[in-house]
Design goal:
Chain lengths: ~280, ~280
């Protein structure tokens, strides 16, 4: 099955458009876990056990593992092995290089780490992304518009009256011949999200930045949903992961995830009532 | 010492502006090495022993190691440990993310892997690059203009009569408050290299693409050198690494590296004769 169809089907089956960012910060995980040989793996295991029925995917940002070198890569691989088959795995590495080299990255994330999708950086253009799209069952979310201050440096520059991020959305559409391309669109820029949705009506959006980075959930969903009132997944990390320093941390994370899942579903279905009739 | 000064001083001391890309392709390394436990590490060791007096730096593209997962990261770390202190280590990972996350990547490449410099992708803007520049003794080469076909997709788009890659060069100049920013400029686009040199007269250029990607060395050097007839390093991988499938492979690589080092020096000094008086 092609990746975008897998994503759609997973969201529908699990009734969730929520993704948890498994980006464990050693300084913020409960202190009692630090007696374990791999505190980060223990932390991830508890979070996954407590939340896997509530999410369509887990997103693992590779930087949080790479900071610990070989040991971190081992935790990354072992964390992925803990995730059950009904839940997708998105590796957030924002990689891309010349085609031959991107092929090695694709091998790394899809074959070696067994991810279902990755995030990629568009700066080097189509041939740097193509190796991530060869296997139609695997997906690539192309960085389009991000929610950090630096987004203004290049993404907002204007080419013939159109922003660079719109050019990226347009190209991503062209690259989507295997129905496995998505876009990363930051939640703090929801005034631009509608523009991107118009350019790419069928691409799934991976939306970070709700919460810790300040985006408003309802506005984001209203602007980002597709014509079927879906087509987006919201990824949240810190606002779910760090709810308690005690042994109840995982159940508190579950409560936070449950609340967010339901909020997202409410906003998606109220969008349906508002615009669908 | 600030990174750009370290680079300048290393090039002068060693009389070399050549960088070898240690990007070992398992299918192309001599077959007799494949009996070793880590053929790639054996290969790298032989190449380093045979060439370390001829290069200012080794550049390791992370994808070539990551394709082997945990084992690949171990080879990457062990390869770096083989490189002597008089030679710089550039990790080519083309990373960048929101600031907090880029900080983890910076920790990974500079503290965990002990590299001297990295390559970074500018798409997410200034705050995504800043964490790589905090330690002034470490450097970051910002992707500016690459030599692959996809460079035309975004890098060549025109904003107010100026290409996006010129905007990147301009921003990189602004970011260079610690004298530790460089630019990646592909050798096949030397007609644009002069433009970039004019925008960023003092930034060192890391130039890939000579040879396997088709750039012409003399033209590249003439267009890319700074006013002191230096300010660039040329990185070559396949055209040095794969010279023989026999036990003489390392000495043949040495011969190829020696030839290239001397060619680069000749072109730099003839540039001096042509333009310096």
């Amino acid at each position: 099955m092609r990746f975008n169809e897998r994503l759609r089907s997973t969201c529908r089956k699990k009734g969730s458009f929520l993704t948890i960012g498994l980006d464990p910060d050693f300084d913020r995980i409960p202190s009692f876990l630090k007696k374990f040989e791999s505190p980060i793996l223990e932390f991830n295991k508890s979070i996954i056990n407590a939340t896997s029925d509530l999410v369509c995917a887990y997103k693992l940002n590779m930087a949080f593992y790479e900071q610990f070198g070989v040991k971190g890569w081992r935790s990354l691989k072992k964390t992925i092995e803990l995730i059950q088959e009904d839940t997708l795995i998105i590796l957030d590495g924002k990689r891309a290089d010349i085609a031959n080299t991107s092929g090695k990255y694709a091998k790394s994330v899809f074959e070696e780490l067994k991810a279902d999708a990755v995030t990629v950086n568009p700066y080097m253009g189509g041939d740097s992304i193509a190796p991530f799209l060869e296997d139609e069952s695997k997906g690539a979310f192309v960085l389009c518009l991000t929610s950090n201050p630096g987004a203004k440096d290049f993404q907002h520059l204007s080419v013939n009256g159109r922003h660079i991020f719109e050019e990226v959305a347009n190209k991503a559409n062209e690259w989507n011949t295997n129905d496995n391309v998505g876009l990363v669109v930051g939640a703090t820029q929801s005034q631009f999200m509608k523009k991107i949705r118009n350019i790419a009506p069928n691409l799934p959006f991976l939306i970070p930045g709700v919460g810790a980075q300040g985006g408003d959930l309802e506005e984001t969903i209203s602007a980002g949903k597709n014509s079927e009132n879906e087509g987006l997944i919201i990824t949240v990390s810190r606002n779910i992961l760090y709810q308690s320093d005690e042994t109840d941390f995982a159940s508190k994370s579950r409560a936070a995830a449950l609340y967010l899942r339901d909020q997202i579903n409410t906003h998606l279905s109220s969008a349906k009532i508002n615009h669908g009739t």
